Amino acid sequence: MSKIDFLSLDGRSLRTFLVVLDEVSISNAAERLGVTQSAVSHLLDKLRLAFGDPLFVRAGRGITPTERARSLREPVQNVLDGLKGLTDERVFDPLVGELEFTVAANDFQRDLIFPGLLRQISADGVNARFRFIPSGIPAVDLLRQARCQLIVTPFPPDGPDIFQARLFEDRLACFYDATVRDAPRSKRAYCEAERIEVRFEDDEDASLVLDQMPELACRPPRILVPNFSALAAFLRGSELIATQLSLLGQVNLQGLASAKPPFTSRPVPMYMAWHRRDHHDPANRWLRDQVKSHVYGLIPEHTVAHPE
């Protein structure tokens, strides 16, 4: 049996393996990594020899990971985390080189915070690439498997290896088309109204905040949509109402009327969360500081967690 030189393994090959494992597609992995499909295939061939396993096999028109490939996710991620930790004390200058971040956020948080932030850092001369993925109700594996470096969500995942910081808090508002209807003035009117809600693709309900009002016995929503951006088209010209965070009025629900709901509700905090591997990473710290500073200038002061 030939001896495999394990020292020939490198971080780029291992990262490629994890991206293919996430995407379950050579072409999607290549696009995400910014390389050619042949480059991805070449690195996978190298890893197949090192691990003595095909790693990915054909399944219809796509590929599927072998059991061995699935079992390698955590140890490979641990190796990459260790390599990354060696650079945590490096001198960092955001103006030198190209930065790359993957952020998990639903369209509301993404559209509220990041377009202006990215314009600002670009004007400052920072060369940064951003990839945004939907978070739904985020699972802790989004961070543990390094599928993103930062999550922005009202429902941060919990774990001993997860850090979080509050960005701001918001109140619920009832959105509607004022040319068609008025805001519901009583609990009864609210519960009798036809509602539209967001149900993420992972089948999690974006209106979990409404669970704090168990006394409301409302009819089921008339319409479910997969993201916040879809709400406005259905609300306009209809009798529908949507109960969401008031700051949606700045982005996804601009131009629609809103009113305080006819019930008592608690403030809803928004957080950013990151993994322990990125806690001391200077690029990640820089990004977190940029997000906090931008939010501080974007949202009314009484709702914002002041930057450190």
Structure, described:
The protein is an alpha/beta fold. It folds into 3 domains: 6-85, Arc Repressor Mutant, subunit A; 99-169 and 269-303, Periplasmic binding protein-like II (D-Maltodextrin-Binding Protein, domain 2); 172-266, 3-Layer(aba) Sandwich (D-Maltodextrin-Binding Protein, domain 2). 34% of the residues lie in helices and 19% in strands. The strands form 4 sheets. The protein has a 5-stranded mixed sheet with strand order 4-3-5-12-6. A 3-stranded antiparallel sheet has the order 10-7-11, with no helix packed on it. A two-stranded antiparallel ribbon has the order 1-2. Helix 5 links the parallel strand 3 (99-105) and strand 4. Helix 2 (26-33) packs across helix 3 and helix 5 packs across helix 9 (282-298). The N and C termini lie far apart (58 Å). The mean pLDDT is 88.
Gist?
Helix content is 34%, strand content 19%.
- Taking Cα atoms only, what radius of gyration do you get, to the nearest Å? 23 Å
The proportion of strand residues reads 15-25%
From the N-terminal CA to the C-terminal CA, the straight-line distance is 58 Å
Low-confidence segments, ≥5 residues, pLDDT <50?
none
Integer count of domains: 3
Write the layout of secondary structure elements.
Layout: H1 11-23, H2 26-33, H3 37-51, E1 56-59, E2 62-65, H4 67-85, E3 99-105, H5 107-123, E4 128-133, H6 141-144, E5 150-153, E6 162-170, E7 172-176, H7 187-192, E8 196-198, E9 223-225, H8 231-235, E10 242-245, E11 257-259, E12 268-275, H9 282-298
Parallel strand pairs: 3-4, 3-5, 8-9
Antiparallel strand pairs: 1-2, 5-12, 6-12, 7-10, 7-11
